[in-house]
Amino acid sequence: MTENKSGGHLRITLVGSPIGYSVRHKATVRALGLRRMNQTVTLADTPQIRGMLAKVEFLLKVESI
Fold first, then answer.
1. What is the rounded CA–CA span in Å between residue 41 and residue 22?
2. CB 52: neighbour CB atoms within 10 A?
3. How many CB atoms lie within 10 A of CB 58?
4. CATH code for the domain of 48
5. Crossing angle between the packed helical segments 47-55 and 23-31, to the nearest 10 degrees
6. Alpha helix (H) ranges present in the chain?
7. 3-class secondary-structure state, position 7
8. What pLDDT is stored for residue 6 in this prediction?
């Protein structure tokens, strides 16, 4: 993950399937707004989003924009 403390935005892409992982991991991916593989969303860089990304970082690609 990139480190951006300036309050910018993050481009998040789902690159791994949450199938076979816990219900909590699946719920976190859904809460980030990701529904299908290779879908990309842009979210604000906040501590709450960073915490969610830390829980499922193995399924995501994160870029700072």
1. 22
2. 19
3. 9
4. 3.30.1390.20
5. 140
6. 23-31, 47-55
7. coil
8. 60
Quote the CA–CA distance of 20 and 51 in Å, as a whole number: 21
Quote the number of domains for the chain.
1
7 vs 39: CA distance, rounded Å: 23
Q: What is the pLDDT along the chain (65 residues), one digit of tens a residue?
A: 555 556 699 999 999 999 999 999 999 999 999 999 999 999 999 999 999 999 999 999 999 99
Domain of 28 in residue numbering reads as 9-64
Q: Is residue 48 part of a domain?
A: yes
